[in-house]
Amino acid sequence: MTNDEQLKVLLQGATAWNKWRKEHPGDPIYLSGVDLSGADLRGADLIGADLIGADLIGADLIGADLSGADLRGADLRGADLSGADLIGADLRGAALSGANLIGADIRGIYLWYVE
Q1: Residue 68 C-beta-side C-alpha neighbours within 13 Å
Q2: Cα dihedral 62, 71, 105, 98 sign
Q3: Under 8 Å between Cβ of 114 and 94
Q4: Contact 52, 33 (CB under 8 A)
Q5: For residue 1, what pLDDT band results from cuts at 50, 70 and 90?
Q6: Would you identify the CATH topology of the domain 1-115?
Q7: Are 40 and 19 in contact (CB under 8 A)?
Q8: Are 88 and 65 within 8 A, CB to CB?
Q9: What digits encode the pLDDT tens for the residues 45-95?
Q10: Are 101 and 82 in contact (CB under 8 A)?
Q11: Whose CA is closest to 16, among 51, 38, 35, 42?
């Protein structure tokens, strides 16, 4: 279930989001199915976030920390994940066509391709 408060803060950008995260350490992040297409999330702390089925088409995730995030079925087509931390992220069934993963840390990711 999506947390509307979290989504509202995240849509304000990475600076507001990272401040909120510091103020709410340990809160689980529920953003499954949200529309973040084209969002500027450079450097966002999305560690362990539930982004199942999220629309991240063309999102700017340069340097974002998505370690341990659940991105199953997420649409990351054309997203810029350069320099992002994806250690241990679950990307099974995610659409990655045209995504930029240059310099991303993809150690231990779960990846399963679906046509």
Answers
A1: 7
A2: negative
A3: no
A4: yes
A5: very low
A6: Pectate Lyase C-like (2.160.20)
A7: no
A8: no
A9: 999 999 999 999 999 999 999 999 999 999 999 999 999 999 999 999 999
A10: yes
A11: 42
Q: What is the DSSP letter of 23?
A: H
Amino acid sitting at position 6: Q
Q: Give the pLDDT score at 76.
A: 97
Cα separation, 50 vs 68, in Å, equals 9
Distance CA 66, CA 101 (A): 13
Domain boundaries, the chain: 1-115
Question: How many residues are present in the chain?
Answer: 115
Q: Is the pLDDT of residue 114 over 90?
A: no
Under 8 Å CB-to-CB from 76, ≥6 apart: which residues? Answer: 56, 57, 59, 91, 94, 95, 96, 99
- pTM here? 0.92
Rounded CA gap, 115 and 105, in Å?
Answer: 24
**The pLDDT value given to residue 111:** 85
